[in-house]
Structure formats: C-alpha cells, structure tokens
C-alpha cells in the first residue's frame, strides 16, 4: 500500500502538468475549422467523399486543405501542415507515402507529424460488424499504442561498415502517460480488463520499464483488472481466440503488429478508423495507415474507415448528433443493405456506397442539402 | 574461407526427390553412406521429455530407421571461469554428430541464470530458425489452407541483449543488423526455397521507419536474389504481412526476416495451424550443425502423466530425417502421424480426444509397420 501511494503521488504531479490545460478547438462563427491533409494513394478520393457527406449533412465544419508532397526532400510542406494543425487543433488525414529507398535523413512524414505534435496515444477500436463475413465473430478490442517513441525513434547509425545499430528508446514518462490514458479510457467506456503487451523476457530493461509503469498506474485503478502477455503469445491467441481480449496497451512496434492483426480479423483495412490523441491536438485517419496505391482512383476503395474516422472527429468536436447520424447510416449500409466494396467481398463501388449512406442520412437525419 | 564457413552445404548438395512436395523437407547435406547415423537427443531433467525418450525408442525400433540415439543433458552448468555453459560432453557429442533433436527446455527464473535456449544458440551458432506451417487435416482451425515457411534470423537484430539506462527513467535498447548475418540468412532462405520446390521468397521489413537497419537487410536480400533468378523475390512491410496473413494466408510461401519480426510472425503462423503443440521447428547453424526442436513449453502440470501431445516433436524429427536425406522413413512417419490425426480415433487431450501419449504413439507405430 505504501508503494502504491508513493507511485500515485509521483505520477499525479506529472498529470497536473500534462493534462489539465486543454485549449478548445478553433471555432469561428459557429463553424469549426479542421485541417485536411489528402496524402497519397486513396487518401484524396476518400477525403473528397468525406467532404461530400459533410456538405450534404450540413455539418458545421470547414476544411482547410494542406497538401503535402511526399516526393520533395525538404520539410516545408510538412511544416506548413503542422503549423495548420497547431492553429486549428484537429486534423483529418490520409496516409503520406514514405519512399524507403531515400536516404535516412528523409524521415517518414507521418512519423514527423506525430512526434512534433506529441500525439502520444493511438487508439483503435476493432469491432466485428454483423454484415461482414469473417472467420472470427464477436470481437471487441480497443488497442492503445504508444505513438512517439519506442522503435520509431529513427535514431540509427553505422558504427562500423556493415554493422548498423538502431536505437529503441523507452522512457518512464511516456510509458506512464500512455498507461494512464489506457486506464482512463477503459474506465470511461466501462471496460473490465487491460492487457499490456510486451517482450520483457528478452528486452528486460526496455519493456521491463514499460511493464513496471503499467503496473504502477494499474494500482490506481483497482476496479480494472490488469494483466500482461508476451507479444508472440498475444498474436497466437489473437488468431485462435480473439474474444478473450478487452483493452490492450503496448509500445510502438508491437502496436503496429497487433493493430494490423486485429484489423485483419474484423474484415480488413477498409473498416477500422484510428485516432491519434495528444495533450493539445487530435488527428484522425484510418487505423492501419495504408496508402493503397494499387487501388487508387479506381473507385473500389472502401470509404468506411475514413468515414468512421470523420465520425470520431465529430465526436471530438462535440457534434454528437451529426456523428451518430452518419455512423448509423454507415452501419446500416454495411449490415442491412449489404452494399460492400470488393475488399470485403462485394461488388459495389465507392460512389455507390457513399450514395447509399447519403440516402439513409436524408431519410433519417434532421436536415440535408438538396442534392443537384 | 568465408564461403566455406558460411555455406558448408554447397559442396555436397543432395536434391530431394521431385515427387515429394512437402514443406517439411529441408536441404540435406548428408549422403546416407553408413547404415548407422548418429544423432543426439538433448533433454532437460523434466519428466515430459522422459516420455518423449520412451516414445522415440519405441518408434525408431519399429521403423528401423538407421539412427543411433545418444542422450545428453543440456542443463547449463557453471564452467571453471564462472560463466554458464552447456556441459562439455553434450558439446563434443554434438560436434561429432552434427544433428540433434531437442525437447522443451525450461529456464529457471533465478536471477543471473541465462536463457537456456540462448546459450544453445550461442554455443552452436544457430543462425536460422525454420518453421514450416501447414494446416493439419483433421485438426480444425479457422484457417484451412496454410502452407508457408518462416525463416528467421536467430542471432542478432532486436534480441542482441544490449540495453542501457541512459538517465534514470530513459532506457535504450540496441537493435543490431550486420551485413554478414543478413547475407547468411538470405542465402539460406533461397537455398531452402530451391531445394523444397518453393515458388517465392518474401522479405519482411519495416524500412520506411528503420531506414538504415532494415534497409541493409533488404539490400542484402536483393543482392542474394540476383543469384536465384528461378525464385520470385518480393518485399513487404511487416504490417501489410500481418494484415494479409490473417485474411488470406495462401498468398505467402517462404518468408525471411530479422529476429523480432520473425519471432512474432512465426508464432502467428503457428497459431493459424493450431498452436505450438503441432508446430515443428529447426535451427540451422554454421558448420552443418542442426538442432530440431519442439517449441512448446515444458508443461510441468502434465509432466509424467502420459498426457502430452508428441506431434510437435514428431514432426520436428521428420524434418530432421529429411535434412539427413532419409526421405523414405520421413514420409512413412509423417503419413502415419497425419492419418492418425485425420481418423480422430486415438487423439491426445489437446487435439480433442482422450487417449494417452503412449496410445497415440503406439497407433502411429502400428500404422508405420502396416505400411511396410
């Protein structure tokens, strides 16, 4: 008991510094302004559909479009985008492609955005949809992934020719922060169990620190069960029995693997939205961050993930009625009308799906623009 | 000198017979010159392994395979210099016979005690871990048509064990990638693919984030692929592989990757076919050394009760026979094992039946004898 009190007071002072000064998002004349970054591949076309649906449903959101050219070597584009997000507070983005044959000084644009804006928590909610045919049913997992450090620190050097070292950084502060985020979210959503995913049997100091921080935070939430699991066992359990997991929290790389496995289990990358939260800013995108170059501009991409991400955006802006209307329309299209795009086994096109969603919004929603 | 050390198999390559299309075959550098091949059976003092010994003496007698078993314990002992090491009798027996079969090993949780498996790996320089995963007819999982092989670099990468505490609360783990090790594993992967009539090799990486380290690994894979034009070479991001693996595992053939990704993916694939209780595994080392093992745990709760499932160890032994060139025996034992599981009459508890380990083994021996 003494130890848990000590640990509570330790991270309580950190919390006071980090959490209680959240500025409100930009709002002029009743219209919220949101930064929109089209990205590459299927990003631009899906975000156009999002804008179409928002305009049709009379959502009071203005989009400030900032283009980022992924082939340019200098960082002006991305710095403009970051400044725009700092100004507006919220962003909706498509994935920006990273050409991995470029030299190491050319950092991944997505990673740069996440670290500069300190969007430390990536949240992804995987739910089985009744209308989608999958091998596993009744999956309902929330994955919380540390977004700024871990293996993605981009600190690499070649000490001797032919030997490359890459550094994985784990800090106590960030681990406490992400664990606290996970437990608060679990409590808000009424979840019973949080599982920490790690590889502390091999990386004893690094993942050991992460695990220790999670345990400290867990002691402050006695109503929520906390357990831990090694990452290779986790992936095995996920493909055998995914129904056993509730909320999972983990460092960056394991988060990448586990979130992609879960997205695959519920039906694919086109169905799951993802959100990146920081202290001051929030950024919404598809959970698996795919560019989708091979299906770009063919009208076969699945708009569900991006549209659900935009609903998360509306929830963040506290426009809950609009969020519920659009979300219900999407789920009705998915589950009842069964209008599916090719990636989940149907024959519909993106525009047909979006049109169906807009028809349902018109029937059920409060007010829509007359469609020309 | 370097090529001789890293590629000892080049000089006396034996191609497996063409009509045997099976993923358990490895290349076999041994000609069956004498009627008696000596191999080693390594075990720890756990009683579970004791049952395995009984089982193996039973079946090697019934199949009349020209193998002589030498049992050696590999419980680590403290050497004269104070460092933990494998007992010298085990080491010299292994150096003489080159092939080993290992049961599950348990690492005591005492502080300072090194991992047993790590010790074995370092002693014999086991650089490649091969895990073929094929769906077993009769053991139902949500995935029916898996047939792939994961080849994982076993010596370096994220598991180099180099960690430092920089300041209080900040830990750095070093991931090491070297040119030599990457080249070695890539060459092994392509040789394996060629000798087992595999169509493609996929390199799994995360070079968009870890540009230099995974970039080096990829470059070496590409260079080696130039010498193997008959095998298709592709590269794929780790997250894309995870996503596609749980949706459609048939699109993958041979996967080659560094240590951490290999750990996660090989366990993921084991989960697809039914878990670690039915997955064989082989570790290939320099100088022609190879140790085949079952990767499941020691299961102390069922040790000594004749309840264990010997399938994993049996299939590893089949892999071993193929490695040595004894394809006839390997095929017989493998077919007997699969027929027993398919018939579902005599199965151990974890496969869904309620027979004992000895009954299961006897059934397999009976089938092998019937085949003669």
Please describe what this structure looks like.
The complex is a heterodimer of chains A (372) and B (372). Chain A has 372 residues and is of the alpha/beta class. Chain A is 41% helix and 19% strand. Chain A is built from eleven helices and 13 strands. In chain A, helix 10 (320-337) packs across helix 11 (350-364). By secondary structure, chain B is of the alpha/beta class. Chain B has helices at residues 2-6, 47-63, 88-97, 116-124, 179-195, 211-226, 238-247, 259-273, 311-324, 327-343, 357-371; strands at 37-43, 67-73, 77-78, 84-85, 99-102, 126-134, 147-153, 157-167, 170-178, 200-205, 232-237, 254-257, 280-285, 290-294. Chain B has a ten-stranded mixed β-sheet with strand order 2-1-5-14-13-6-7-12-10-11, sandwiched between helices. In chain B, 49% of the residues are buried. The model of chain B is unreliable at 1-38 and 43-49 (pLDDT under 50). The chains are: A alpha/beta (372), B alpha/beta (372). At the A-B interface, strand 7, strand 8, helix 7 and helix 8 of A face strand 8, strand 9, helix 6, helix 7 and helix 8 of B. Strand 8 (163-171) of chain A pairs antiparallel with strand 9 of chain B, so a sheet runs across the interface.
């Amino acid at each position: 008991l003494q130890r848990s009190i000590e640990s509570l007071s330790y991270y309580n002072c950190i919390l006071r510094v980090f959490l209680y000064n959240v500025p409100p998002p930009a709002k002029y004349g009743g219209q919220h302004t949101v930064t929109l970054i089209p990205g590459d591949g299927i990003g631009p076309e899906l975000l156009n559909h999002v804008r179409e649906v928002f305009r049709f449903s009379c959502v009071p959101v203005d989009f400030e479009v900032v283009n980022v050219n992924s082939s340019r070597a200098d960082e002006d584009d991305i710095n403009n985008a970051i400044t725009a997000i700092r100004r507006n507070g919220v962003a909706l983005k498509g994935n920006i492609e990273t050409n991995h044959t470029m030299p190491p000084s050319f950092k991944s644009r997505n990673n740069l955005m996440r670290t500069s804006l300190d969007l430390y928590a990536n949240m992804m909610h995987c739910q089985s949809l009744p209308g989608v045919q999958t091998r596993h049913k009744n999956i309902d997992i929330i994955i919380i992934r540390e977004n700024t450090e871990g293996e993605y620190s981009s600190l690499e050097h070649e000490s001797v020719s032919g030997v490359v070292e890459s550094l994985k950084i784990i800090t106590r502060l960030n681990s406490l922060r992400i664990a606290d985020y996970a437990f608060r979210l679990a409590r808000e959503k009424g979840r019973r169990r949080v599982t920490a995913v790690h590889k502390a049997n091999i990386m004893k100091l690094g993942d050991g620190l992460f695990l220790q921080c999670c345990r400290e935070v867990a002691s402050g939430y006695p109503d929520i069960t906390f357990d831990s699991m090694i990452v290779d066992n986790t992936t095995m359990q996920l493909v055998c029995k995914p129904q056993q997991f509730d909320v999972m929290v983990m460092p960056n790389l394991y988060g990448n693997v586990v979130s992609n496995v879960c997205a695959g289990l519920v039906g694919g990358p086109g169905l799951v939205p993802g959100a990146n939260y920081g202290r001051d800013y929030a950024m919404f995108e598809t959970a698996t961050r795919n560019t989708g170059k091979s299906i770009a501009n063919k009208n076969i991409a699945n708009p569900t993930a991006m549209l659900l991400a935009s609903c998360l955006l509306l929830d963040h802006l506290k426009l809950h009625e609009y969020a519920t209307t659009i979300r219900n329309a999407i789920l009705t299209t998915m589950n009842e009308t069964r209008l599916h795009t090719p990636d989940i086994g149907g024959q519909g096109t993106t525009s047909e799906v979006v049109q169906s969603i807009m028809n349902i919004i018109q029937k059920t929603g409060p007010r829509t623009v007359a469609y020309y | 000198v370097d090529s001789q050390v890293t590629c000892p198999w080049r000089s006396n390559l034996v191609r497996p017979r063409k009509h045997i299309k099976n993923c358990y075959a490895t290349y076999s550098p041994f000609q069956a010159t004498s009627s008696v091949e000596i191999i080693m059976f390594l075990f720890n003092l756990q009683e579970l392994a004791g049952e395995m010994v009984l089982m193996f003496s039973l079946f090697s007698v019934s199949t009349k395979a020209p193998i002589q078993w030498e049992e050696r314990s590999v419980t680590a002992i403290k050497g004269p210099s104070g460092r933990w090491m494998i007992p010298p009798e085990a080491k010299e027996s292994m150096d003489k016979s080159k092939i080993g079969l290992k049961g599950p090993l348990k690492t005591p949780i005492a502080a300072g005690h090194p991992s047993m498996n790590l010790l074995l790996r370092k002693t014999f320089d086991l650089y490649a871990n091969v895990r073929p995963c094929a769906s077993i007819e009769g053991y139902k999982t949500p995935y029916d048509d898996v047939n792939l092989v994961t080849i994982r670099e076993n010596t370096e990468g994220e598991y180099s064990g180099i960690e430092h505490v920089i300041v209080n609360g900040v830990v750095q783990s070093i991931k090491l990638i070297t040119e030599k090790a990457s080249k070695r594993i890539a060459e092994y992967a392509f040789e394996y693919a060629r000798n087992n009539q595999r169509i493609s090799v996929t390199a799994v990486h995360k070079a968009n984030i870890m540009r230099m380290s995974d970039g080096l690994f990829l470059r070496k894979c590409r260079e080696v692929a130039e010498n193997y034009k008959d095998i298709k070479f592709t590269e794929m991001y780790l997250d894309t592989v995870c996503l596609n693996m749980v949706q459609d595992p048939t699109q993958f053939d041979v996967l080659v990757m560094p240590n951490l990704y290999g750990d996660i993916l090989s366990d993921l694939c084991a989960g697809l076919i039914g878990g670690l209780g039915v997955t064989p595994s082989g570790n290939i080392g320099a100088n022609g050394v190879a140790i085949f093992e079952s990767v499941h745990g020691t299961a102390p709760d069922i040790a000594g009760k004749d309840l264990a499932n010997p399938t994993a160890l049996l299939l590893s032994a089949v892999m071993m026979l193929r490695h040595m060139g004894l394809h006839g025996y390997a095929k017989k034992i493998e077919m007997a094992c699969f027929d027993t599981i398919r018939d579902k009459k005599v199965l151990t508890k974890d496969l869904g039946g309620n027979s004992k380990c000895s009954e299961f083994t006897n059934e397999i021996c009976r089938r092998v004898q019937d085949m003669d």
